[in-house]
Amino acid sequence: MNKRIPYALFALTLLTTAACTPAPKETKIANPGASVSGTVELWHFFAEREAAAIDTVVKDFEASHPNIKVTVKSGQDDSKVTQAIGAGNGPDIGLSYSTDIVGKFCSSGAWVDLNPYLSRDKVDLNQLNATTRQYTEFGGKRCAMPFLADAYGMFYNKDMFAKAGIAGPPKTLDELTEDAKKLTVRNPDGSLKTVGFLPLYDFYENAAAHLAPATGAKWLTADGKSAIGADPNWKTLLNWQKSLVDWYGYDKLTKFKAGLGDEFSTDNAFQKGQVAINIDAEYRLAFLKDQSPALKYGVAPLPTADSAGYGGGYVTGNIMGISKNAKNPEAAWELIKYLTTDDAAVTKLAGLLKNVPTTTKAIADPTLSSDPDFKTFIDIFNNPNSMTTPPSASGPAYQETFGQFLTNYQAGKVKDLDSGLRTADQQINSVMQLGG
Amino acid sequence: MHTVRKNLTTLSFLAPALIGIAVFFLYPLGSAVYFSFTKFDLLSVPQWVGLDNYRQMADDPFLLQAVRNTLWMVVVFVPARIIGALGLSMLLAQLRRGAGFFRTVFYLPSLIPPVAATIAFVYLLKPGTGPVDHFLEKIGISGPLWFNSPTWAKPALVLLGLWAVGDLLVIFLAAVLGVPESLYEAASLDGANAWHRFRSITLPSIRPVILFAAVTGVIYTLQYFDQAAVAGSIASGQATVGAGISQSFGYPEGSTFTYPLWLYTVGFRYNALGYANALAIVLFVVALAVTVILMRRARAFSGEEA
């Protein structure tokens, strides 16, 4: 066989591969007032009850926009959307559960910049909650709009509080430690029977991102590098958590945690009264109502290191954007505008999906705030002390890399916190560079 | 002319297989090699970066941990399954009554999808509430934390692999049953005991099967993904879909964090497809090298020419 044939085949493969990769495409938008019609395809990740809620609101949209027909595909996750866009067949609209994709989708142009549409239609972004505005733009591009939000706070067991003689929810981290100790019950052999607050970072919703607002700890510098080692607020948070872990005993906590049920099952440790205080979001209210109606619980903002910072928590949410290869971007924008800025639609969606609405008027809607527990989460959402995780071109790389450091730290594997945090910075920057 | 026609006839018969290999193996492999020299996120045009992705492996903080865990699995998991399958097959070969029943019982677990089997195993071994823990408690043993312990998580995965050893078992059983009875009879007449018969007759006779099991086992273990991902997710108590899954990769404390989990994470979570392709190429080269070494050693061992 001719020896050049394999080389030629390899070169052909490379050429074919290179030719099959996506090329940038410029989006042109219509003039103001131009009529919009046709079919638009929406991919979302919801299923069952939540997918039915989306269908309901989409039908409302079709009724008010008779020239636009919406095709909805449920159960589509981020990787499917990414692959479809990369292959040139992206849906007109993607609805994602994670703000982690914003950095990459904005920087790569996978989702188009919505600023031209917003300017043309004179949409006032100030009607959107400030934190949600942060996590929907990256590098000066607004490629996403917030589609409802989650606000994280604290759930506490009122019966267990009363039994331990605690009047109300803790507001500072010191109070949280004090209450956690009072609420903890040990077995005769010293093992843990019930735990006041389970401080391990890999327990349920205790991820560093959800606890960072307790001290106001920052993730990234202005130039997108890790800010963890240089921000003393992280050290405050880590020292507080480690001292509580040490009070329980890491091995005892790990053993106790190993026997607990799954977070999203009826065996959830808070719902079963095995843990008295838990970090969780507003969606837990629906689980409690459905699965543990007899449980007496209260909700409150996240306790903070400094009482001046009290009132907030972690905020995140779902996001929507238009694919760069959308077939009908104008109709896509009409639907996104309706689902994210029409107050009636946003209020209806929030009521159906039991998530926090994102527009000022919807947030103030009395039907949503009539439930005092839900109102607490709306207040957390509106509080200026609330924080989110900043978008990054490498997605959640910085959070997950730090997460690995934290699991080692809480296990006692990091002897010197200062040098450990410096190493964590290097590791985070190194991992972010892979995808950035 | 006759030769050309003969070659064309041969080629036409080979064509379906050749096309399949070209489309489903050579083209993806060539693409992976190309992308491993680029910075690529699936969404933008790839940028040629030369050997940068390979150089970055030296600074990768998680690569060493992933390699260490995968090596542990190769060194323990592969021999454990081979020894388990060999031992079981020899026991089953001795059975005179109920052989069909026991063969079915031991083979069945391998038919269960890995994800379902892993979920079931995590619940069986769950500390405090799992039946295994209850049983151990009753006989006075304080069970380990299994999938929740960084020391026991990998051994628990090995147990899972041993439970589902049926795929190897059928091959070993066929090989063991295929050893001519006359050899054993002759050895017995010469005074050979059970160990001698095993070492001098069974083992050499089934060597090709052991080699096959070792090669496919190493390749399978280098790609060990499903069970490690699911065990980490379920044991962490944060079983979820979509975005959350890679957060619990490696749980607990990175002990189940294998090479393919890291490859998936950098590729599909951190959008570093170029680097992920470089990791995939390294994995391919390692798998190929291990296969070649195993084949050569096996040939040398059996006296064949390398």
From TrEMBL, chain A:
Q: Give the molecular function GO annotations.
A: maltose binding
Enumerate the UniProt keywords alphabetically.
Signal, Transport
The domain of life for this entry's organism is: Bacteria
Signal as a keyword of this entry, yes or no, is yes
For the keyword Signal, the answer is: yes
Q: Name one GO cellular component term.
A: ATP-binding cassette (ABC) transporter complex, substrate-binding subunit-containing
Q: Which residues constitute the signal peptide according to the record?
A: 1-18
Q: Which InterPro entries match?
A: SBP
Which Pfam family is one of this chain's hits? Answer: SBP_bac_1
Any GO BP annotation: maltodextrin transmembrane transport
The family this protein is said to belong to: Belongs to the bacterial solute-binding protein 1 family.
| Name this polypeptide is given | Sugar ABC transporter substrate-binding protein
Automatic annotation (TrEMBL), chain B:
Q: How does it sit in the membrane?
A: Multi-pass membrane protein
- Show the Gene3D superfamilies listed in the entry: MetI-like
Keyword Magnesium listed? The answer is no
A single BP term in Gene Ontology: transmembrane transport
Provide the protein name.
Answer: Sugar ABC transporter permease
Q: Which Pfam families match?
A: BPD_transp_1
Q: Which UniProt keywords apply?
A: Cell membrane, Membrane, Transmembrane, Transmembrane helix, Transport
Q: Does the keyword Membrane apply?
A: yes
